[in-house]
Amino acid sequence: MAGQIRAGREHRHTGRVDETIWDVARASRRWLDAANGSGDTELTCRILKLAEEAGEAAAAWIGVLGQNPRKGVTHTREDVAAELADVVFTALVAIESLGLDARTVVSGCAAKVQSRLG
Which residues make Cβ contacts (< 8 Å) with residue 61, sequence separation at least 6? Predict the structure, then answer.
């Protein structure tokens, strides 16, 4: 799995925790399928859920900046990171919902980006 950047340092995670990410994404897709079905309308909702989650990340960043003078500073960078993680996880579930293996798709994306880095 690609490294995670934090405070200028690269962290590599390996082992069972990484496997849990993919397992939980698949289990979430199965749970949603059982609760809501798996037709195109449901798939559309899962894809649109990404926009909702991205909006929450944007709102958290606005809260970090204190951009709203009525509210002031309302969030931390950790809050933003948690919201971005929700975006990532929602995307993994959406990929699985397309009938594709999220790990394979994300690995392909990482390889594409890596090839651009030189």
Answer: 75, 80
Alpha helices in the chain (DSSP H): 16-36, 40-65, 77-97, 102-117
Give whole-number Cα distances, 79 to 45, 74, 93, in Å.
Answer: 24, 10, 21
Give the chain's domains with CATH numbers.
15-117 (1.10.287)
pLDDT in tens, 55-112: 999 999 999 999 999 999 999 999 999 999 999 999 999 999 999 999 999 999 999 9
- 67/102 Cα distance (integer angstroms): 36
Token pair recorded at residue 7: 């405070």
pLDDT by residue (tens digit) across 3-35?
444 444 455 656 666 899 999 999 999 999 999
Q: What's the one-letter identity of residue 64?
A: V
Contact 4, 10 (CB under 8 A): yes
The residue whose two tokens read 């991205």 is 54
